[in-house]
Write a structure and sequence with these properties.
Number of helices: 1
Distance between the termini: 45 Å
Helix content: under 10%
Strand order of the largest sheet: 1-2-3-4-5-6-7-8-10-11-12-13
Number of strands: 13
Structural class: mainly beta
CATH class: Mainly Beta
Number of domains: 1
Amino acid sequence: MILSVAASIMGFAQIPYFAATVGNNNVYGYTSVKFRPGNNLQETYSTFQYGVGNMFATGIDLYTNNGGSYGGVLLRFGLPVSEWFNIGAQVTPTFDMTSNLSLSYVNTSLYLNGNITEGGKYFWCGNTWYGINKGIENTISQYLYLGASYDLPRGQKITPMVGTIYSWKFDQDADLAIGAYWTISKFNIYLWGNDLFKRNPRVVVGVDFTFSAVK
């Protein structure tokens, strides 16, 4: 069970997260499949969030891997300071769905992002994750990304990003992460990867969407 918890904590974050929340009375959904070619370890992660005002959101998470399944309840905050700097935060107590919904871990996160050039063609993004864990040592990791947005025909966009993942405890090698998302209307399609220099790199395929809950 401890190995399953460790996998869920390590696998929670992958794509970059931005400071802004979904917006008042809007619904945000994201679902993904994560796998390592040649290694029988599959993961899924899904979240659904509802905007309460323009700076707050609440919702649920569901994470599964070969060893278990976990459900979380999240509270999220986002403050748009300027186009150069934005700040957000989230807390997600998460429960083991195979063990009478016992508290398994609490993920807390700090989201920072902003533009590098005016208009946002080039931008940066940073995510700090602190995991308060039951049965294993707490974790703290940092994701830092640089990205660029390119317009495509019919209002579509492609946004490649590259960055690094490392532990604030500096107890392991830093990791390269690279990926992109393709924007089609209100949908984003993600292809991401890390552990690229290991025998079994990690691949993430996901999709998210946003729509208004009020007509």
